[in-house]
Amino acid sequence: MTLSHRSVTVKVPATTANLGPGFDTLGLALSLYDELTVTERDEPGATVEVIGVGAGEVPTDETNLVVRAIAHTFAAYGQPLPGLNLVARNSIPHGRGLGSSGAAIVSGIMAAKGLLDGIVEIDSNALLALATELEGHPDNVAPALFGGLTIAWTTDAGPQHKKLIVHRGVSPLIAVPEGTMSTELARSLRPLSVPHEDAIFNVSRSALLIAALIQSPELLLAATEDRLHQSYRASAMPETDSLITELRDEGLAAVISGAGPSILVLCSDPAQRLIAAETVARHRGTPWQSLLLAVDFKGATVISHPVEISS
Ligand code: HSE
């Protein structure tokens, strides 16, 4: 008898959310990836081997976020969950505002989609809905799923997204500090309400930011101003605040990446990005690692490879 166990490999990009004024709305996929292989097995339950970021830190049983995302997807479609062996090769730093939890969730959902291929169809709206249910907001999981620059919004019918292609001059730099920041803590620092003029301020900058990112990168500095979240979070990450001030004083479009504490600098061209990298290297205080990344245009990808076991 020959038993066939399905096996899939998923590659998911890091993401940066908010991009300054686009709180819980805008996201950008970046060329830094987590890779996950999931193989069905006869025994129930799940094992997780983590290589790279998170090894020895994240749970390796059914409580693992990737396993929970796979189980959530199978349950959503009424499918029995098979036994699973997972191997996660992670490069996205954890707790730094680079979408690592969103990437874990998207990895699990896309792996489940691959394992259920031919059994159930899961379209892109359903993928975004499943991922947003687990993540709580759509701005990281949308670019992790679909790549590029995404605008995400929620409706009574669930989260929606629009993917846009970024101007080819736009050159992102991510500055990563040693310390981490809890997204939960960062979210708790937001005020319950904001002045109307601050809301108008962010509406104008968010609209301008779309134009800057797809057409007019020279507008990035003005377009990345924000009054909805960054100043409220600054006291929880003073080093981030201080480096952002220094970069912006030099005319560079620096913002908190997601909930922080990393910094995203949206440079208008590769030459400006080298200037940003020099400023980060010169900055006094805690050391920062500069990542010069490309925009990822593909989003999550899945490769299926059936494993034949003879007995
Ligand atoms: N929009 C989210 C926030 C991204 O800033 O809290 C982090 O998950």
Shape: globular
Q: Taking Cα atoms only, what radius of gyration do you get, to the nearest Å?
A: 20 Å
Q: And the CATH topology of the largest domain?
A: Ribosomal Protein S5, domain 2
What is the oligomer described by this structure? single chain
Task: Count every beta strand, where a strand is a DSSP E run of 2 or more residues.
Answer: 13
* Order of H and E elements: EEEEHEHHHEEEHHHHHEEHEEE
Number of helices, where a helix is a run of at least 4 consecutive DSSP H or I residues: 10
* N→C terminal distance: 6 Å
Number of domains: 2
The helix-and-strand class reads alpha+beta
Unreliable runs: none
**Roughly what is the average pLDDT, rounded to an integer?**
96
The CATH C-level class name of the largest domain: Alpha Beta
Fraction of residues in H or I helices: 25-40%
Q: Give a short account of the largest sheet.
A: 7 strands, mixed
Bound molecules: L-homoserine
What this model shows, in words?
- The protein has 311 residues and is α+β, with helices and mostly antiparallel strands.
- It has two domains: 178 residues, Ribosomal Protein S5, domain 2 (2-Layer Sandwich), CATH 3.30.230; 122 residues, GHMP kinase, C-terminal domain (Alpha-Beta Plaits).
- It has ten helices and 13 strands.
- The strands form three sheets. Strands 2, 3, 4, 5, 6, 7 and 12 form a seven-stranded mixed beta sheet that branches.
- Helix 1 packs across helix 2 and helix 2 packs across helix 3.
- The protein is globular.
- The site of L-homoserine has 12 residues, from helix 5.
- L-homoserine (HSE) binds next to helix 5.
